[in-house]
Write a structure and sequence with these properties.
mainly alpha; 28 helices; about 725 residues; four-stranded parallel beta sheet
Length: about 725
Amino acid sequence: MSKPPLRPHQLVLGIGIAFAAITAASGIAAAAFGFHEDTDAAHREVFGNVPGGVKFAFYALTCVLIVYGAWNFAQRTRNWQRGAPDRRSTTASNARRRLHDYRGGVLMQTLLRDPAAGVMHALLYYGFLVLLAVTTTLEINHQLPTAAKFLVGPTYQGFSFVGDLAGAIFLAGAVWAIVRRYAARPYRIRIKSRPEHMVILIVLAALGVTGFVAEAMRIVIDGRPAYEQWSFIGYPLSAAFDGLGNIRGWHQVWWIAHVGCFMAFLVMLPITMLRHMFTSPLNMYLRDRERPKGAMRMVPDLMEADDIETIGVSVVSEFTWKQLLDTDACTMCGRCTAVCPAHATGKPLDPREIVLKTGEIMAATGEHGGVTPPIGADAEITVAADSVFERITHEELWACTTCKACDENCPVNIEILDKILDMRRYLTLMESEFPAELGGAFRGMENNANPWNLNNGERADWADGLDVEVVDADDPFDHEYLYWVGCAGSFDDKNRRVSVATAKLLRRAGVDFAILGPGENCTGDSARRSGNEYLFQMLAAENIAALNGMGVRKVITQCPHCFNTLRNEYPQYGGNWEVIHHAQFLEQLVADGRLDLSEARLDERVVYHDSCYLGRHNDVYLAPRNVIGSLGGVEIVEAPRNGTKGMCCGAGGARMWMEETIGTKVNDERSRELLDTGADRIATACPFCFIMIDDGVKGHGVEDDEVKVADISIHLIDALEASES
């Protein structure tokens, strides 16, 4: 019988033991053979002026601490293994993407989005890595016979220069980190500072200081030879200690202090946030997944399966192992906190807390013990069970607008939104715990196939008098495009104008399209993102059956929520079509010359408000801007928060159907920001954004004749019709 393969925690522990064995062998070799370099050439005597007992203690303690660290990391790995399966295997098709994601993290590309933090981390990280390489190289050279030693002469001088340069970079990073956390004190860092942060930073800074002082004293003991001038910090510093009494004793003190700092670092590495040196790169490597970034985690067909005991997440083991790894990869930087619209407007949600609280519960309920939480928690906080609701409140979860700003701006690719949505699934389907206002939207989707709960037979009323064909869902589809209007475009008065404008633009461009009218149902986006997976699947099944039965191949949408659902989520259940948002399609029509805007002008200042489901969920940022920018005379301006850091309108994640009773309304905050640009027009590309921003602008006392809020299609029609009048 063959042995089962090593499990991840066994592999981690085995690697640690192997490193400890190598370290022990290195110490034994150094003691047994004691090779020395008897030369006048530039060189360094390793362990010069260090007593034999201290050398033995150094190797022994290092071995013990390596095994200690490996044991702790193995225990953490066992905790991740409690999670449900998640396919993150490296394959021929995703290997390049995985390496790209990993390289982006190691090269600090995501961190450098914030230069103040990114450069500081780069100084610490790269400085440390080079110092580790310098120390390792010195130890390798130490083991070699005299004739084989390579750190002599010019090679040693270059080695000394690199070591001092790396030490200076590392120390500068440590000092910068201390100043940033305790003097500059950015909000996102200030609110989560703990005593352990101070301990870590003091140890790192002390590691650099003691290293330079010990080096300077060693140079004094060696008689300050000229070749040591390549140690461009240690050599000048040695002048300050030249003539100091008992220099050998002081050197031993500082050498032991330096080694002590290194030992302290090894102790802290697996039990504090320093662990992210290993877990964050791993998490970034595993970023690539099979489902698109805009799609929620798939749930089995609830209408067919009869053996599903629970849906969503209520306990640690119901998260996937990757979601649990996330909690140990978190750097506590708070970038998710800084961009969260709910947090910024006084709601109880802080995305970072979702990650850290999940990690607390995981650490406190592990079967094997010995695992610390991601960051120190108040002593009064206790975790009695592995239920996520021991620490995470319902109010936090329902405050989320699912804008994905937290995921998009996380420098280590933690998937925060998935956790929130999985917990919502449990609350809604297993506990019926959801905001009361959602009940009306659920009933509307179930009874009338739309959350407005209006007669679905009126879906095509907006097209009365227009040259728009309404096709029957039971007939074959013989047009090039199906124009998926969506619930807002069919029933909301503001967005019916968007449907009319879009249809006119398509007709002008000679596009062959038709609509379903009463045959179209809600895609179920609001149902799914509020946890009602059963209702979503019911709507999805009807829509997929209808479109597949008709033979639809291409779909145009004006709603990013419909776009995301049709394009990214319906394929999970057999719906595969070419789906394009009207902003992208209009951009193509203009570029191809099919939609002639050569005479159309809009001599006004326009600011575009990014839709979260078009932008962060689907990476469509330029198309809406290019459409507006194609008009003559227009001046495009940007709000302070735009693109990947754009602020949500507040309606995503089924918040469209919920009241805001805590803090500032998200749409009011965003509307103020857009108005402050001095724009004459505000352009949107999402029906929810249109409603929320228009309401917010009017809430600030600004009417249409002062600043016009409208979808990009309306702005285009305004310009075209004005040029023809």
